[in-house]
């Protein structure tokens, strides 16, 4: 409740400060028209930005109006897709005469043309957030991209190792990574089978990012996995005319290092550019032995012709991460010695494991002690991205890609049965040896390739439209090997004990358009057809034989309207439908009685955006209504693995608030908050009863969806005492989250409230373009919190046992960076 009051106070302060501050500064109104420099035609939809908060787009005649512009805003930035951007001196621009701004076409902006095909605008009627490279660079000191995006609306980041390096993840509006569509340069990134996103396979990708757009909800049609909660659209492509070189180094708590080298040729012979990055990130992790050794590179070459553009990207990530997947048992986390001893007894821990559990720190305990209990994986990406201007109105974007993944995770196993590995027992004299200690590796060897395209039409009047789509093919081998056994018998080194192949094909085609009915009313329409097939053949690690071949056809309509009620104020509404196929694990863990169905989401978004003087605010209402959402209910399959089951009705609904205010040229505040309800209409919990060999059922009625906090809030105060120095206070509040769908108060993550302090100082010596010093102090008040966890329960001996596990996050910790730009 205390943290909740803090959030409420912040929001009230934001509103009151905004209202009281609007008349403090001298203000003026700027008007003008933006046209094509060559033929003078108006450019509707061009962006006019005044400072960090204020902005608008031009109407069908290329005209714009910006009212109540504060005198402390120095620059006016004008941009339009496919044209060179222009920056004007706003402080010396008169409001008495309309501005006549002419933009010049540029092939060098082709990267933006390609990105635009999969992004939304203020005229789409959907909720979104844009994050630029400048914002990321202030935080980019070694932590993974999910942590860098932590302060965007409705987003919660997690870290297995507790320090933001290694295995990290995000949830948006409570939805997990398997329901978040991620693209890199418009090309799908999600793992085709699990549909999850493994950011650890793209170390330091943030150092190559030019911009990110996060669409919340179903979003617009894009390529790859179905967006069932959000879309994260990453662009690494950026045109840089001048040659450059950078050397970025950082160090921090838990022996965290980041070393990055970046170089670029600039524009060569008015046609070519080359860019490269080499990175290394390492960390011991907050959790015991949760170390990470991450390497990556990025290479990009681009050709700019008169009407054609071609870019080739090659990037790769290599990770070796010590496993910390099991979390900390609740008794250990709470320091409950009696509970720890009971946990040891009921789980049969041997002396070494029991000693580790008892003597490790309560928050940094890691159950793994084998020195090579690692995840070792490499992922290579090859992209060819092209754009061709067919005429003044038509642009064709055609892309191809290949992703190659290969790696394993290694495990030490104590006293496993030979039968679990399809091996015979060992007969030694009169003795039969049926189990042994061993080391195994579980491999994933895959290829993922395909193509995406879009044909974009711009009438430069009332209509813009696009036809696009893509096809991709996934071929993945899953297999396990025994590399050592204490009692080997006839077992060979690297003996394979299971193998299965997954084949997945995904085709989609969509059409979308924007139409400007009047100067104030705009409509958006989008229709996508998607065809998915998924085959799994062979034996899995539980020695169960599969032969699945499932196909799905989905039609996903979307539509929205936007109405401009004033020059810098608009309201909007949209409806979207999304359909999603089950994941690989839903198939492999399923039973004949509980075979998974596809899920459907009906998504309504409505809201308003307003900008005035030195402030801007927005509010977005959303309703995400699911049919047959797959959730964990406690049911298990024949080998004891948990299975997700379709529940007929569930929903997420809430309101997202955002506000920004520039008190003056030095002090700014951005804040956001989400208040929501996330419910399953009628939830029944299944508890395995080993006494009866069946389930005990408990009906919870309407219950909360797991990992879905009702309140998420973020705040960023930035203060610049001088132009080259900035201080920031970063605050995050996340409400309580339940570990399962029962709304049981004994199975939850407590709410947490963290504060970080950031400093950025830039100098420009004669021998370098600039040197930047960054300092980040995370979790200033050492808040004790857990960002993730899991639970399971069973009945044995007429007693219910509920096992809760948590992933504690680091207390106060720091990162410091020194960046050289040449």
From TrEMBL:
Which subcellular locations apply to this protein? Cell outer membrane
Transmembrane listed as a keyword: yes
Q: What is this protein called?
A: Iron complex outermembrane recepter protein
Provide the family line: Belongs to the TonB-dependent receptor family.
| Family matches, as Gene3D superfamilies | Carboxypeptidase-like, regulatory domain, TonB-dependent receptor, beta-barrel domain, TonB-dependent receptor, plug domain
This entry carries the following GO cellular component terms, namely: cell outer membrane
Segment forming the signal sequence: 1-26
Q: Name one Pfam family in it.
A: Plug
Q: Please, which domain of life does this record's source organism belong to?
A: Bacteria
- What is the membrane topology noted in the UniProt record heading this document? Multi-pass membrane protein
Q: Does the keyword Ion transport apply?
A: yes
Q: Where is the TonB-dependent receptor plug domain?
A: 123-230
Alphabetized, the UniProt keywords read:
Cell outer membrane, Ion transport, Iron, Iron transport, Membrane, Signal, TonB box, Transmembrane, Transmembrane beta strand, Transport
Q: Which GO terms describe its molecular function?
A: siderophore uptake transmembrane transporter activity
Residues covered by the TonB-dependent receptor-like beta-barrel domain: 354-780
């Amino acid at each position: 409740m205390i943290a909740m009051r803090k959030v409420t106070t912040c929001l009230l302060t934001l509103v009151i400060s905004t209202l009281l501050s609007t008349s403090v500064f001298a203000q003026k109104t700027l008007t003008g028209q933006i046209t094509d420099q060559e033929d003078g035609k108006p450019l509707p939809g061009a962006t006019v930005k005044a400072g960090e908060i204020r902005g608008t787009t031009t109407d069908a005649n290329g005209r714009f109006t910006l009212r109540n512009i504060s005198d402390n805003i120095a620059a006016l930035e004008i941009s339009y897709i496919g044209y060179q951007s222009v920056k004007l001196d706003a402080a010396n621009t008169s409001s008495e005469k309309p501005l006549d701004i002419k933009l010049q076409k540029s092939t060098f902006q082709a990267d933006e043309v390609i990105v635009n095909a999969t992004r939304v605008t203020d005229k789409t009627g959907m909720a979104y957030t844009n994050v630029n490279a400048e914002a990321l660079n202030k935080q980019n000191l070694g932590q993974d991209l999910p942590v860098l995006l932590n302060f965007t609306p409705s987003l919660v980041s997690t870290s297995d190792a507790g320090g933001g390096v290694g295995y990290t993840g995000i949830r948006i509006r409570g939805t997990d990574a398997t329901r978040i569509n991620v693209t890199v340069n418009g090309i799908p990134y999600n793992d085709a089978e699990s549909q999850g996103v493994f950011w650890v396979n793209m170390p330091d990708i943030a150092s190559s990012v030019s911009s990110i757009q996060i669409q919340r909800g179903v979003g617009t049609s894009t390529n790859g996995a179905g967006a069932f909660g959000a879309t994260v659209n990453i662009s690494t492509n950026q045109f840089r005319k001048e040659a450059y070189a950078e050397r970025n180094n950082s160090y921090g708590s838990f022996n965290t290092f980041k070393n990055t080298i970046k170089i670029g040729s600039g524009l060569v012979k008015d046609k070519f550019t080359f860019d490269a990055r080499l990175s290394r990130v390492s960390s011991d992790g907050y959790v015991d032995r949760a170390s990470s050794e991450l390497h990556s590179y990025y290479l990009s070459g681009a050709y700019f012709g008169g009407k054609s553009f071609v870019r080739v990207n090659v990037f790769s990530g290599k990770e070796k991460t010590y496993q910390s997947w099991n979390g900390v048992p609740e008794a250990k986390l709470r320091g409950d010695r009696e509970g720890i001893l009971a946990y040891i007894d009921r789980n049969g821990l041997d002396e070494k494991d029991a000693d580790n559990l008892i003597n490790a720190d309560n928050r940094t305990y890691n159950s793994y002690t084998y020195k090579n209990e690692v995840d070792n994986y490499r992922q290579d990406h090859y992209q060819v991205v092209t754009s061709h201007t067919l005429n003044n109105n038509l642009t064709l974007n055609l892309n191809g890609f290949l992703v190659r993944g290969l790696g394993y995770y290694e495990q030490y196993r104590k006293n496993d049965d030979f039968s679990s590995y399809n091996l015979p027992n060992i007969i030694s004299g009169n003795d039969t040896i049926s189990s042994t200690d061993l080391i195994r590796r579980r491999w994933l060897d895959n290829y993922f390739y395909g193509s995406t395209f879009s044909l974009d039409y711009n009438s430069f009047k009332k209509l813009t439209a696009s036809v696009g789509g893509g096809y991709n093919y996934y071929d993945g081998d899953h297999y396990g090997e025994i590399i050592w056994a204490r009692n080997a018998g006839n077992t060979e080194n690297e003996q394979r004990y299971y193998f299965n192949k997954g084949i997945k094909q995904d085709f989609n085609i969509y059409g979308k358009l924007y139409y400007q009915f009047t100067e104030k009313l705009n409509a958006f329409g989008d229709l996508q057809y998607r065809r998915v097939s998924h085959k799994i053949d062979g034996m899995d690690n539980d020695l169960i034989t599969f032969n699945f071949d499932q196909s799905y056809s989905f039609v996903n309509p979307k539509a929205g309207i936007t109405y401009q009620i004033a020059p810098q104020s608009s309201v909007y509404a949209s409806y979207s439908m999304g359909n999603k196929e089950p994941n690989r694990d839903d198939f492999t863990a399923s039973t004949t009685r509980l075979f998974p169905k596809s899920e459907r989401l009906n998504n309504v978004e409505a809201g308003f955006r307003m900008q005035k003087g030195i402030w801007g605010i927005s509010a977005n209402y959303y309703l995400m209504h699911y049919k047959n959402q797959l959730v964990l209910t406690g049911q298990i399959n024949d080998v004891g693995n948990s299975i997700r089951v379709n529940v007929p009705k569930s929903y997420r609904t809430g309101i997202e608030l955002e506000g920004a205010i520039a008190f003056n040229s030095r002090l700014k505040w951005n804040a956001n908050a989400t208040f929501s309800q996330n419910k399953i209409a009628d939830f029944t919990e299944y508890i395995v009863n080993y006494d009866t060999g069946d389930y005990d059922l408990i009906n919870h009625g309407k219950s909360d969806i797991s990992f879905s906090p009702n309140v998420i809030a973020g705040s960023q105060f930035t203060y610049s005492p001088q132009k080259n120095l900035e201080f920031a206070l970063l605050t995050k509040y996340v409400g309580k989250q339940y570990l399962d769908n029962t709304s049981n108060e004994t199975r939850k993550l407590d709410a947490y409230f963290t504060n970080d302090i950031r400093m950025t100082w830039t100098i420009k010596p004669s021998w370098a373009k600039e040197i930047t010093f960054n300092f980040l102090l995370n979790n200033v008040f050492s808040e004790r919190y857990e960002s993730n966890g899991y639970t399971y329960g069973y009945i044995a001996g007429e007693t219910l046992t509920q096992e809760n596990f948590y992933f504690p996050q680091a207390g106060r910790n720091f990162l410091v960076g020194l960046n050289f730009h040449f």
